[in-house]
């Protein structure tokens, strides 16, 4: 007999409410991808060093023409809010203080 597991999909709003209510904490290494809460691997030293090198290089090359976000949330749609290692964002005076960047805010 095969048992089918029930999967529950979440929205970005529900995901944020889980943090607000304490179900998830700032220390949890998770991302919302296609409605599923995915546990992320810990960031090892080599990975961190690579991201640091890339950030340093991009800041030198691009200066103030972009906002370089490192491992910060990007709201892609109603059910995905990944935290990419690096995202190049269109400059904004508030540095996205009022809302996470959206797809139209990302340089491709």
Taking the alpha carbons of the first and last residues, their distance comes to 48 Å
Sequence stretches where pLDDT stays below 50 over 5 or more residues: none
Question: Could you name the CATH class?
Answer: Alpha Beta
Q: What oligomeric state do these chains adopt?
A: single chain
Give the second-level CATH assignment, the architecture: Alpha-Beta Complex
Task: Report the count of strand segments.
Answer: 4
How many H/I helical runs?
2
CATH superfamily assignment?
Answer: tt1808, chain A
Tally of separate domains: 1
What is the H/E string? HEEHEE
Neighbour order of strands in the largest sheet: 1-2
What is the overall shape?
globular
Strand content: 5-15%
Gist of the model:
Helix content is 25%, strand content 13%. With 108 residues, it is an alpha+beta fold.
SSE blueprint:
Elements: H1 12-20, E1 30-33, E2 36-39, H2 45-62, E3 67-69, E4 87-89
Antiparallel strand pairs: 1-2, 3-4
How would you explain this protein's 3D organization?
The chain is an alpha+beta fold and 108 residues long. It has one domain (12-105): tt1808, chain A (Alpha-Beta Complex), CATH 3.90.1570. The chain contains 2 helices and 4 strands, in the order αββαββ. It has helices at 12-20, 45-62; strands at residues 30-33, 36-39, 67-69, 87-89. The longest helix has 18 residues, at 45-62. The chain starts with 11 loop residues before the first helix and ends in a 19-residue tail after the last strand.
């Amino acid at each position: 007999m095969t048992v089918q597991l029930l999967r529950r999909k979440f929205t970005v709003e529900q995901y944020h409410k889980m943090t607000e209510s304490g179900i998830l904490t700032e220390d949890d290494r998770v991302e919302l991808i296609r409605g599923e809460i995915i546990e992320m691997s810990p960031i090892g030293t080599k990975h961190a060093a690579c991201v640091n090198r890339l950030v340093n290089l991009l800041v030198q090359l691009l200066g103030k023409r972009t906002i370089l976000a490192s491992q910060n949330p990007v709201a892609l749609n109603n059910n995905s809010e990944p935290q990419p290692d690096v995202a190049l964002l269109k400059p904004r005076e508030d540095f996205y203080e009022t809302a996470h960047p959206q797809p139209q805010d990302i340089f491709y």
